[in-house]
Amino acid sequence: MIRLLVSAVLSTALLLPSVSLAQGIDSPKQTSDNIWVMGVPDKEDIATFAQSGGDVVISLLSVEEMSGSEETTWTSQQGLAFFHVPVNGATGVTFENARALDRLLLTHADKNIMVHCASSNRVGALFALRAAWLDGLSTEQALEVGRQHGMTSLEDKVSKMLAK
Prior knowledge:
Blueprint lengths: L1 H9 L8 E2 L3 E2 L3 E2 L4 E4 L4 H9 L4 E4 L3 H4 L4 H7 L3 E4 L10 H13 L5 E4 L4 H14 L4 H10 L6 H9 L1
Parallel strand pairs: 4-7, 5-6, 5-7
Antiparallel strand pairs: 1-2, 3-4
């Protein structure tokens, strides 16, 4: 119920999200003043984000998932900065990658940022790790941050990582 209420409140944001917990976040979901998360954006998603004031796109797709992608071209055409932090599935959910994401978010804190992977599951996992390890939130608070950012099937892994 709370998740639905949060989703309803967030849907009044700049970009309207389409959320399917089984499949991930299909379109940009605004999670804070300047952060949007989603699964893989298409050319239209990138253009809409840019036209709505977007500045930076951070991809958490693996190197293999990025091969053949035109995302760097699309972001460049829209005047957006593009960064890639390769997160290779569940094995890529690490403190190092959470810290790499954190550095980018801090560097561009004054910008509007879209962070994505295939479904936003890895996005949420790294946001949860960041919330606990770098921001000092409790495990439950960090897991909720992860859920709000799209974490689904990686929650058990993240919970175990935070328990260590």
